[in-house]
Design a protein that fits this description.
Number of domains: 1
Helix content: 40-55%
Number of helices: 2
Radius of gyration: 23 Å
Shape: rod-shaped
Largest sheet: 3 strands, antiparallel
Strand order of the largest sheet: 1-2-3
Distance between the termini: 92 Å
């Protein structure tokens, strides 16, 4: 009498989809982290360029090209340049279309004197 016959198949049928979901979630989380890092780097570089005297319009156009789906804001606060970028990250599940969160990165750079 083998009462355990087929139990490995049943366990595998339950565990494999869960492992696949965990792997997909980890890959999505890595994508979110890499997006946040890229946004932060681009925003910091742009703030530095504007603070050093580069034309703000050209720098913001280049930033918009590097972060195409992001909302960008540039403001001068006292003697500082502040750039803020927001990017909506949706959950990659078709049933949950529109569910997600917004990544926000900002950078501040002091204006450099011309002389």
């Amino acid at each position: 009498m083998h009462r355990d016959r087929g139990s490995v198949t049943a366990e595998a049928a339950l565990v494999l989809p869960m492992l696949l979901l965990v792997a997909i979630a980890l890959m999505w989380a890595m994508g979110v982290a890499l997006t946040a890092l890229a946004m932060g780097d681009a925003v910091r570089t742009s703030a530095r360029l504007i603070a050093r005297g580069e034309p703000a319009d050209a720098v913001m156009t280049q930033l918009q090209e590097s972060l195409p789906d992001s909302e960008l804001a540039l403001e001068a606060v006292g003697v500082d340049i502040v750039i803020r970028a927001e990017h909506f990250m949706s959950v990659p599940i078709p049933v949950l279309n529109g569910v997600g969160f917004t990544l926000t990165q900002s950078a501040t750079a002091p204006l450099e004197s011309a002389g």
